[in-house]
Write a structure and sequence with these properties.
- The complex is a heterodimer.
- Chain A has 27 helices and 26 strands.
- Chain A is α+β, with helices and mostly antiparallel strands.
- In chain A, strand 5 and strand 6 form a beta hairpin.
- Chain B has a six-stranded mixed β-sheet, with helices on both faces. A four-stranded antiparallel β-sheet of chain B has the order 2-1-4-5, covered by helices on one side.
- Classes of the chains: A alpha+beta, B alpha/beta.
């Protein structure tokens, strides 16, 4: 029996090539999209799960509530926290602390590199994160001071091989020499941490510069805990408030409000967008996972809907076959299996094509999303089950309604030749067309919104001018010692307009601390620290609201002056901010500073974040970026000359540079990638919907051939007849627009909520998306309608 | 074999009610060849569909092989149909995606017969219909007469007790039509009961009895042989 079904299905496919192609292409596109997204979702949700005991590993997150920033979740914690958690809670089996160093200079002999992803950490990193050592003793590799573990990549880069690396000296941070005591396997891509080097924290425990390690008021370290087997994390969390009170808030005025919780390791990658001060290599977002999953299901549904619609439309043609089979003895279940079998064959064929298409598209997909996804039938059993599920679900979804619908036909009616389709089925067809095009409206709408938001991010006034500003990272102190020499030499170049130094390219250091003012009612405020030189604000064209910029003529500017942004003034409620004094909570910088200027708020971070209060100081020890504003005529030549000056002064240090504008742009890479994926899937769903609509229109118009012939004979023009044929479909598309628009609005608003500053959705987006879909549908159906309306009426009347 | 008692069939749409059959009562004995004649729209095909268990009467009783059909479920009717009745249609109704062999094979597949037994039966019947040489051809590659011979082959391959033919020569020229009628006549002589709807007086001459319908009622019966008794 199955062979019979297979034979008929294949011959049907061959005979009805046009509709078969629509079905197969539609399903292939739908399944391809689904598979790509499945691989992506599997990858994103699988972060850190390869680590044994991962379900017992947690990251400590603080909830701070401070004036100026409100409630904020931060992943950085205090130095003494880890040891206190181990001693106070028997549920805690082990802890590890990590301090991200940022890019640091690493020297071996005459070779110097600037290395990223380096961490200062406890020896317990190895057992907790199950770090695999290719060389070295995992029990002792990081226990001693001045020991360092490097990755396999670094070992080969520096020493040529893993074995050759062992015992070698590395000069790190231009300060001290460390010994390579281990070489670790490169971190897999699906770990939230990407580490190329672990430096033993023990090295710094007695250094004065690291006294803050003992300070409960200083949050700089990421702390992870490993709970004992069977420990109840919720119960442990209920004990944390008492712990905090005992160790921290009772003794330290730094915190106005502090709480903590334990974030599961498996949640870090996707559920941490609300957390500040993190060290993840790549931050995922569960929102994108949900969104992409939703899109994948939608596109697959659109393809299945095509199948159903075309099957219903073809039912008139196939009704005779169904009738005959019943006459010959087939019962309803025979027919149901037959049609689901056909659907299964088409689906299996489409799945094979899809797998091939996925292989072709994966390199591009990976490039867009920054992943290394691949199809692995041998090791990815879940993917294979997923494929099987797709085959079953898609064939049932596509084939069930047609199967049940077709198998109900009464042979007496259909064999008479008077069957023209049931009203209920026609209503379903229309509903499905509306559904398909609603999805297209939603996707076009979303694409328009994302494009507009991205354009907004590129044209919005950031409050400063990054145009033609090149940033040169400074990793070592000697560059700062020679900063004036560097500056003067660079300025000799007529292509250079201005030079400045700062902490990071935007002036904000990335650290935060509490200040308070004693000039009115005592009030606290959490501020971002910014460390800039005399020239920074002028060069970046950040306007003054009141007062003045830092000036060398004022001797106290470098020791006791501060420039604040408008947010600080608002927070303290100052009418006259100039001359007000602020004090610092903590030992970061000397005690009291006088406000000499107020600058306009500017976006020192991306438009995702609200502009928080910021306070700027002259503090050269914290400068890490040299900024050079150049003419835009010959940037490469100018940069080459700067590089020569750099190499002349620092021959061992690699020269790096970036354009500030590009760096700002890279803050929106995620949204750009989402846009690309959205555009791809929007295009796909539109293509599938249009193919389906064309196929449906073809079948419906074919059934009206006699009517068209009669209308032509009695005088109807091509235009009049074409209009008549099209209008039914266009009404459906307009309805789709009306239904899809509110959903699109909600979805797009949700996307925009990722930004603190975003566009407003106006009526333009509704009009444009509905109009686009209408135009596309008009062209799709119009082509067929014109062809049918132009046909010779004699042929049409002979048809019956 | 067949007995109807006051059989009626009314077709209802939203606005129109059509009485296709109006209290039709008659009997057909095993081995008879009965022709049903009448003008277009008199209810011939409707009657044939009911006799063939393809449709239900609106009222009245229908006994087929002593079983009252009104009480039978769709599944039971399908079962009775596939074991006992073969159909021949005016427009052949072959499945275009299947070749001659496969078309004839279909009823046997639905009967659950094994492949080897099916092969034997099909080859026998194709030989009988003199269409064996075209067994791999598809319907669109055959002439009208050949297609109808395939249809007849399909109708008889399961060795049914009854063949229902709805204008079997309607789409054929006279030569091919005669061929088909000779086939049916031959089958009847071998014991198969045949009920045939026809417009053609010439085709009706092959039957033992002609039943005339008009506006859904039997108005006349001509018995052409001494085999049957008078029916009112």
């Amino acid at each position: 029996m199955f062979r019979n079904y297979l034979k008929i299905a294949l011959r049907n496919l061959a005979r009805q090539r046009f509709y078969s192609l629509i079905n197969i292409i539609g399903l292939t596109f739908g399944i391809t999209s689904f598979l790509l997204i499945t691989l992506y979702v599997q990858h994103e949700t699988g972060f850190d799960r390869y680590i044994p005991k991962n379900e017992r590993i947690f990251r400590v997150v603080e909830i701070q509530n401070e004036e100026g920033v409100g409630e904020q979740h931060v992943a950085i914690t205090m130095g003494p926290l880890a040891a206190a958690l181990r001693s106070d809670f028997p549920e805690v089996e082990n802890t590890v602390r990590l301090l991200l160093t940022g890019k640091i200079p690493v020297q071996y002999g005459s070779k110097q590199f600037n290395e990223d992803n380096c961490f200062i950490t406890d020896a317990s990193i190895i057992p907790i994160f199950n770090i695999q050592l290719l060389a070295g003793n995992r029990n002792t590799a990081l226990t001693e001071a001045h020991s360092v573990i490097i990755s396999e990549i670094l070992a080969k880069r520096y020493f040529g091989s893993v074995a050759a690396a062992m015992g070698k000296p590395l000069r790190i941070l231009n300060k001290e020499t460390f010994t390579v005591t281990g070489v670790m396997q490169n971190f897999p891509e699906n770990c939230h941490l990407q580490c190329s080097m672990f430096i033993a924290l023990r090295t710094f425990e007695k250094e004065k510069e690291f006294d803050w390690l003992k300070d409960w008021g200083n949050n700089s370290l990421i702390t992870y805990v490993l709970l004992r087997e069977g420990a109840d994390v919720n119960r442990l969390e209920t004990k944390l408030p008492v712990f905090i009170k005992r160790h921290i808030t009772d003794n330290d005025e730094e915190y106005s409000s502090l709480d903590m919780y334990l974030q599961p390791l498996k949640d870090i990658h996707l559920h941490s967008n609300h957390i500040k001060f993190q060290i993840q290599h790549k931050q995922g977002n569960i929102k994108w996972v949900h969104l992409f999953s939703f899109i994948a299901v939608l596109v697959l549904l659109v393809a299945c809907v095509n199948f159903i619609n075309i099957a219903i439309a073809r039912s008139v043609k196939r009704s005779k076959e169904v009738g005959m089979r019943k006459v010959l003895g087939a019962n309803r279940s025979n027919l149901i299996y037959h049609f689901i079998g056909e659907s299964l064959i088409i689906t299996i064929f489409s799945v094979f094509l899809s797998v091939g298409l996925v292989e072709l598209l994966l390199p591009r997909f990976n490039a867009v999303l920054g992943t290394h996804l691949l199809i692995d039938f041998v090791h990815n059993g879940l993917f294979n089950y997923g494929l099987l599920l797709i085959v079953i679900v898609t064939s049932l979804l596509s084939g069930s309604y047609p199967a049940f619908y077709l198998s109900k036909f009464s042979p007496a009616v259909v064999l008479k030749g008077s069957y023209r389709g049931k009203n209920k089925a026609k209503f379903l067809q229309k509903t499905l067309v509306v559904f398909q095009f609603s999805i297209s409206v939603i996707m076009i709408f979303s694409v328009l919104v994302i494009v507009a938001q991205l354009r907004f991010t590129s044209v919005k006034d950031l409050g400063y001018n990054p145009e033609n500003v090149v940033g040169i990272p400074i990793y070592e102190a000697k560059a700062l010692q020679k900063s004036e020499i560097l500056k003067n030499e660079i300025l000799k170049n007529p292509s250079v307009k201005s030079v400045a130094f700062s902490s990071n390219a935007n002036g904000a250091s990335g650290t935060q601390g509490g200040v308070y003012t004693s000039d009115s009612i005592r009030k606290r405020c959490m501020v971002r620290y910014g460390f800039v030189d005399y020239n920074f604000f002028k060069m970046m064209e950040i306007p003054l609201v009141e007062g003045r910029y830092f000036q060398p003529e004022f001797a106290t500017d470098s020791t006791a002056a501060v420039i604040v942004n408008e947010a600080v003034v608002r927070e303290f409620g100052w009418d006259k901010p100039l001359g007000k004094k602020i004090k610092f909570i903590g030992d970061e910088v000397p005690d009291e500073f006088t406000v000499v200027g107020v600058i306009r708020n500017y976006h020192y971070y991306s438009l995702h974040s609200v502009i928080e209060p910021a306070a700027f100081f002259i503090y050269p020890e914290r400068f890490n970026t040299l900024l050079v504003k150049i003419n835009d005529h010959k940037p490469n030549a100018t940069i080459t000359r700067i590089e020569n000056i750099w190499k002349k002064n620092f021959p061992e240090s690699p020269f790096e540079y970036f354009f500030i504008k590009q760096q700002i742009h890279s803050q929106y890479t995620t949204e750009e990638n989402v846009l690309i994926v959205f555009i791809y899937f929007t295009f796909l769903s539109l293509v599938i919907s249009c193919m389906g609509l064309y196929g449906l229109a073809s079948l419906v118009l074919e059934q009206r051939t006699r009517e068209i012939g009669i209308r032509k004979v009695v005088g109807g023009s091509i235009f009049q007849i074409g209009k008549l044929m099209i209008q039914d479909f266009l009404v459906l598309v307009i309805l789709a627009g009306v239904i899809g628009s509110p959903v699109a609005f909600v979805l797009s608003n949700n996307l925009l909520n990722n930004f603190a500053y975003h566009i407003q959705i106006t009526v333009f987006y509704f009009i444009y998306s509905i109009f686009s879909v209408l135009l596309i549908a008009l062209i799709t159906v119009g082509i067929k309608a014109a062809k049918v309306a132009s046909a010779n009426p004699v042929f049409a009347l002979k048809y019956e | 074999m067949i007995r109807t008692v006051n059989l009626s069939k009314i077709f209802r749409t939203d606005e129109v009610e059509t009485t296709a059959l109006n209290n039709v009562s008659f009997e057909i004995k095993e081995g008879e060849f009965v022709a049903i004649m009448g003008p277009s729209g008199c209810g011939k095909s409707t009657l044939l569909n009911i006799l063939g268990l393809l449709d239900n009467p609106t009222s009245g009783k229908y006994y087929f092989l002593e079983n009252e059909i009104a009480k039978a479920s769709e599944k039971q009717r399908a079962g009775m149909r596939k074991h006992n009745i073969g159909f021949v249609f005016q427009n052949f109704n072959l499945i275009d995606e299947l070749n001659v062999y496969e078309n004839v094979e279909l009823p046997l597949i639905y009967l659950g017969m094994s492949a080897s037994e099916r092969r034997k039966r099909i080859e026998d019947v194709l030989e009988q219909m003199q269409i064996m040489h075209r067994k791999k051809h598809f319907p669109l590659q055959l002439s009208g007469g050949q297609q109808q011979r395939v249809a007849v082959a399909r109708a008889v391959v399961a060795k049914p007790h009854l063949i229902l033919a709805d204008e079997p020569t309607g789409n054929l020229d006279s030569a091919h039509g005669e061929e088909v009628m000779n086939l049916l006549d031959d089958l009847n002589r071998k014991g198969t009961t045949i009920v045939m709807v026809t417009h053609s007086q010439r085709d009706a001459e092959y039957a033992h009895r002609i039943v005339r319908l008009f506006d859904g009622q039997i108005i006349n019966e001509n018995i052409r042989s001494s085999f049957v008794e008078t029916i009112v």
